[in-house]
Amino acid sequence: MYHKAHGIIETLAPLHVGASAGEETGNLNLIFRDQFTQTGIIPGSSIRGRLRADMRETKPDRVGFWYGKEAKENQPNSTSEGIIKFEYASLLWLPVFCPDRPVVRVTCPALLERYQRLRGRQPHNFKPYSYWGEIDSKLLFFNLGFLPLKEKRQELFDEFMPSSVTNRDRYLLLVVDDKEMPMIHDMGLYRQSRVQLEDHRKQSKDKGFFNVEALPEGTVLVFPIAMRNKFDNKPVDWQEYLKEQEIEKEKELYFGGLESVGFGRTQVTLASGDQNNDGGN
Amino acid sequence: MGLLYGSAGGFLSPENLVGRSNASFPPSSATLSGIFAAHYGDRSEELLNLQLAGAFWAKIGKEQEFYVPTPFNSLFNDGKIGSDLITWQCDRWHYSTNSSKAEEGTWLSISEWDKLQTPDGEKPTVSKPPWEFVPHLHPRLEDDERRVKRLDENGTNNDGTLFLENAVQLKPDACLIYLSNIELPSAWYRFGGEGHLVEIESLKLDNPAKKWLETPLPRSFAIVTPAVWGSNRLSYREPMVKKGEQWYSVWFPNYKEYEKPILTQRPKPTRYRLGKQENHDPQQPKLLSRGRYAVPAGTIYVLDEPLNNTWQSWDDSWFPKEGHYYFKRWGYGLALPLGNAITPESKSKSVLENNIQE
């Protein structure tokens, strides 16, 4: 049994976590995707790696305790299980350009359902095209056509927009059908061609040209965290972890590749599942 | 809560990234047994009588109508039309005429199990499993730089820098189902390799599964979980017991090896980790059991006489024993009645006569 908690990631810059096996050879560097909703995810191992590397800088002697010890060569049983575990971060809200808005935050029932579940809440019936926000007309001019807005739901904002998100009340919130999410997601991704030039000529270096896709700035993701309740018959304290990890409330962390060119900056908020709140409250 | 681990055996080395390791999913009930052991403590009263069976799966909200592997005698092509049936007639397996290539690895809802009781009549529908494999590369990075670890001074890297996981993602509206005789508190648990997390909920077993588990087995039945029979070292295709120095078949005392009425496919390798090592940290790896060949789920047995009992009442001695446990503990060879595996006497005669005329 584990203590339940979760984390909210808000991207402050484009975020690229990718190169799943077999896809790293093409010229478009894809982000890691969920197989069913086809939306971007951040693998749990990446989240773990980031936090672990951070702790290694500040409290190197505690890394083994929280994240487990690595196997040493020719030493059987030198590994240990970590106290804290992460699963992948799934999308919660994706900002999408919409000609007359200019930004709509989009999600779908499958993604909301996961957020609901990892906070330990009862299943909720999310109807496609329910929305929250101020509108002039019930027809939204979306990039791929006109989209009808149906019911206005206050809980989309109250319950499903984490309170730590910047400008959380500025944009329209919209739930689309699960089937439409992959296409809208693909439309909303940040894509860039990158070229590395030769040092003294304006010509691309060999293998210095590639395309990359990333989750856009303002994307909100959510991931479950589990912490062992006991270790060596002593209780483990969630607050102690937050203190040693130096995330009292929220923290800026970098994830994924292309950090040096401004990708990957995010704001991470951790919330204990027992407090039953959704972040910064 | 996230991905699950699906790799099995045959791992990749950093020098060879072309292939993938083998895949195995869903995890066996022995994996779940580990969670019970961790929760109840290795030598607790409850754990001595623990009995598990699985793995099955279900759609969330319809957990009682969980899916079990399709018996091998039902051949399906597009998930709906099960026109082809393999039946036992007097002394041999009879293939119906229009058999084309059948789908493999399909699953059947337990609520449709009654449609398997007569050779004619309405045919059940089958489903594909609700999970997908996601190859997932875990590079090992330099401590202070975000790039894959460099080679050592002598040009090698003993740790390896890349690890490819065959992760598995379950559809959000599906869950795995295991049968158990004791309860596990609802919570998050670690399940399978790579420390992946799951949410476990205990539900009371109800019909239709309950009915089928309580139905005495007739002459023919199918197993819905893999079965390991025989001694601790040898795997057989049916229960064997030792009398003196000799091994005897329990179900087929009168048959020779090659003509037993068993419909099966190639064996499935199986093994698990078991037991706590003395004087070690409880988090240390457990001992790996001997690798065994299991009869795959879906195998059909046709006996001379009805068994007239249920799987639960089968003798422990039919199963191999390893450590303190008989394999029955992990639900090996869970059998359900299967009426349509035999053509009725009268009909089979006429079919045989027809065949002879042709």
Automatic annotation (TrEMBL), chain A:
Domain of life: Bacteria
Positions of the CRISPR type III-associated protein domain: 9-265
Cross-referenced Pfam families: RAMPs
GO BP terms: defense response to virus
InterPro entries: CRISPR-assoc_RAMP_Cmr4, RAMP_III_fam
UniProt entry keywords in alphabetical sequence: Antiviral defense
Name of this protein: Type III-B CRISPR module RAMP protein Cmr4
Organism: Merismopedia glauca CCAP 1448/3
Lineage: Bacteria, Bacillati, Cyanobacteriota, Cyanophyceae, Synechococcales
Automatic annotation (TrEMBL), chain B:
InterPro entries, sorted: CRISPR-assoc_protein_Cmr3
Pfam families reported for this sequence: Cas_Cmr3 (PF09700)
Protein name per Swiss-Prot or TrEMBL: CRISPR-associated protein Cmr3
